[in-house]
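re: ur msg from earlier - yeah i can do the CA2 complex, just paste it... oh wait u already did. ok heres what im feeding in:
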Amino acid sequence: MTKTVFLLNGPNLNLLGKRQPEIYGRETLADVEAAAAALAGELGLALSAHQSNHEGALVDFIHRAREEAAAIVINPGAYSHTSVAILDALNAFEGVVMEVHISNIHRRESFRHHSFVSARADGVIAGCGTAGYLLALRRIATLLSG
Ligand code: CA2
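and the outut:
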């Protein structure tokens, strides 16, 4: 049976491609989701993409993933640096978790250097632009096939 990957994007990532292109690039979230869905298909995976500006809604998506998904690609946005609730939800998910940051959070302000989510992530990709989402999917395909 085809395995499903949840692609979760956190607060303000709905603005991708519309503001701050020098940091986050010119692709919109719709572009990213379309490219991810196409690659997932090539890799024999199904993609279910969601974005929310609300911490609890992201927790709810992670709970849904417990029932529906074999893996999660998550860019928690600023909640990476603050949210124990998202970490707790991911700790209750048994599949593969890949954390993605479009920018290199380690080259930015010190408050972005720590991510609570990294304590649960099976892999972390930062600073590869929106290509990071595609790299994460390739890693998931490898891990799920093993
Ligand atoms: O580099 C990343 O992907 C981040 O997760 C993005 C978050 C930031 O708080 C993290 O420290 C690093 C911010 C997302 C904001 O996205 C925007 C996109 C376009 C225009 C404005 C904001």
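cool cool. The domain at 3-129 is CATH 3.40.50.9100 (Rossmann fold). ping me if u need the other ligands too
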